[in-house]
Design a protein that fits this description.
This protein is α+β, with helices and mostly antiparallel strands. About 20% of the residues lie in helices and about 30% in strands. Strand 19 and strand 20 form a beta hairpin. Helix 6 crosses helix 7. The protein is globular.
């Protein structure tokens, strides 16, 4: 299934576009560092609150040798419709030092800003965000990542109990999938902290830091953070190859301090139920937090001093072990670390350490998820049922929603238990039993058209996209708000399935055509070269889709005249694409006509997409 998904992605990226499908060689995207947040905007006019939508805050970076004047471009869209675009120059800086099993230049490029789209973006739902890297010399664009932003809206009320009225919602991003992962950063001396938003030098001495995420417990009274959970101290229990090891005689060596480095917070409020018609309203908050855990571990490098050259001159970085800390070099093997507070195990980590003291990445990490220097994913376990610091946990969003839609394997989801309600739940207005659920959803909305947080179910993102309904919200008179088109019908009726097959056949015709036509396509020669390695598989997929399209037409007694030419083009292009791998004489005859067949397939695919697939969808 994963191979089919990746193939569909390749087909989509094969369409004629100004951006290639991946970053140039030597550039590495930092996925754990990437951070998005949304900030709501509203105004109070004539006694009523107008929802002005949300703005986007972003933090991302990549490592590698980038030329001056390089930039990023962000494109926000929904249901295939572009809503906004932004271009911003990157901050080109020397970060860290080379060496330490990192063979790429550490010239990082980052951006951190708040996007105020020209047109307000209003409403909860799934939004697509594409991030492009623009080479400062060639001005070529390269697609860095495609993200899915699961925007949620927490409705609110304002005013007193006797004069209560709807307030603008708190917008926030669903991050439940990210409770599944943790990374370890083996920070060389004088190297910056991993999640730092600035690039100064860090503390002296090699150190080991864990980063992990959770939805901390909130006080039930008013939704505020429990103060003792912002900073939590505990003790470590460590085993290597099943045997307990001593982390030092000094008490401070076994003390663990956690510092919050990032968070997302939103609060819902309502007066739906009778109990909240007087006094304070019903309030429920949701908070996602990233913590940094500093461990009393270090390691020894063979070379204890490293010098790197940057535009301002040479800088020497110390790479010495921290005094009195346990050196990983002395304990190679399988490590297990438990973090215990008041006798309760809150988290545990497992990882392997080699003879050089390097912590190895977790085998389950997908190969297309990349990290910055000296960091990688490690296996983390949350005790069954969650712990005293966890407020909301669910594995439902890990596979599709982690890392802003990049997703993680089931092995990550298996580490996350269920605890609490995933999202704030409005109080229920008194009504008959059969109408109670409907009353809760209706009365919880600040306005008749704004979606409540409870309307978006805690299911995986792929299922949400199918079930999603159009969303609208009150708009400011001076702005031109976005309109949100209805969701695509993915049913198996005459429109949905036939349209999907037509679209997939069109995309496969385009991709196969480009691969066959090759250098004759001029500007697309680079894309053709990339797709060449997929040629046989593209041929197989095109052949299957052409048969499926033909079968649907026959089974549904539809006229085949309109689809006949694309189907014939699919059969011919598939045969030419597979001819090099199959010893069939009839197919070998097609090899000499690969270029014209490729051009014909490309044209047929584009026409079929415009005239055949999209209208049916």
């Amino acid at each position: 299934m994963q191979s089919l998904y990746r193939l569909i992605v390749v087909l989509l990226l094969a369409l004629p576009t100004v951006a290639s499908a991946e970053l140039p060689e030597g550039l590495v995207w930092d996925d754990p560092y990437t951070w998005f947040d949304v900030s709501e905007d509203s105004r109070y006019v004539n006694g009523a609150t107008e929802d002005l939508g949300w703005k986007l805050q972003y933090k991302f970076r990549m490592f590698g040798d980038v030329p001056e004047n390089s930039a990023f471009r962000l494109v926000l869209s929904r249901d295939g419709k572009e809503l906004g675009s932004l271009r911003e120059n990157g901050n080109r800086r020397q970060i860290g030092r080379p060496g330490f099993d990192w063979d790429r230049p550490l010239l990082g490029m980052s951006a951190d800003s708040l996007v105020n789209w020209k047109t307000p973006i209003v409403g909860a739902g799934l939004y697509d965000l594409a991030v492009y890297y623009i080479d400062g010399t060639s001005l070529d664009e390269h697609l860095a990542r495609r993200y899915t932003l699961d925007v949620r809206a927490a409705p609110r009320v304002r005013g007193t109990a006797s004069n209560s009225q709807a307030d603008g919602p708190h917008y926030y991003l669903n991050r439940h999938g990210d409770a599944a992962w943790s990374i370890v950063h083996q920070r060389p001396g004088k190297f910056p902290e991993y999640m730092a938003d600035y690039y100064n030098t860090g503390a002296a001495g090699n150190s080991v830091t864990l980063y992990w995420n959770t939805f901390p417990r909130m006080s039930e009274k008013d939704g505020k953070t429990v103060a003792s959970e912002t900073w939590i101290s505990g003790r470590l229990k460590a085993k290597v190859n099943g045997k307990r090891i001593d982390l030092g005689s000094q008490a401070r060596l076994q003390q663990v301090t956690n510092k919050q480095v990032r968070q997302i917070w939103a609060e819902m409020s309502d007066r739906n139920a009778e109990a909240y018609r007087t006094g304070p309203p019903n309030k429920q908050a949701i908070r996602f937090a990233m913590y940094r855990t500093d461990l009393p571990l270090t390691w020894r490098d063979d070379d204890e001093r490293h010098t790197t050259r940057q535009p301002s001159g040479s800088v020497t970085y110390e790479a010495t072990p921290k005094q009195d800390f346990v050196a990983l070099n002395d304990h190679p093997g399988e490590w297990e670390i438990e973090w215990v507070v008041n006798g309760e195990t809150l988290r545990s980590w497992r990882f392997d350490v080699d003879e050089t003291g390097r912590i190895q990445p977790w085998d389950e990490t997908p190969g297309d998820i990349t990290t910055g220097p000296h960091a990688h994913f490690v296996e983390m376990n949350i005790p069954e049922g969650g712990t005293s610091i966890d407020g909301r946990l669910t594995p439902d969003f890990v596979e599709d929603g982690a890392l802003f839609g990049l997703g993680l394997p089931d092995e990550f989801a298996d580490k996350v238990p269920e605890k609490g309600e995933p999202f704030p739940v409005p109080s229920v207005a008194e009504a008959s039993t059969e109408n109670a659920e409907q009353a809760a959803q209706t009365s919880a909305q600040p306005s008749a058209t704004r979606p409540a947080a409870a309307e978006l179910p805690a299911s995986d993102i792929a299922e949400q996209r199918e079930a999603e309904e159009p969303v609208s919200a009150p708009q400011p008179e001076s702005a031109e708000p976005t309109s949100i088109d209805p969701s695509v019908d993915t049913s198996t009726g005459s429109g949905g399935l036939h349209g999907i097959v037509r679209v997939l056949l069109s995309l496969s015709l385009v991709a196969t055509g480009i691969a066959l036509a090759g250098a004759s396509l001029g500007p697309l020669a680079g894309v053709a070269e990339t797709l060449k390695g997929w040629q046989f598989l593209l041929g197989v997929v095109t052949l299957l889709l052409a048969f499926m399209d033909f079968g649907i037409d026959v089974g549904g007694l539809r006229p085949i005249i309109g689809d006949g030419l694309p189907q014939l083009a699919g059969f011919a292009a598939a045969g030419a694409a597979m001819s090099g791998n199959l010893q069939i004489d009839a197919l070998k005859k097609l090899q000499g006509s690969a270029t014209p067949l490729g051009i014909a397939a490309l044209i047929a695919g584009v026409l079929h997409l415009v005239a055949g697939g999209l209208p049916v969808l």
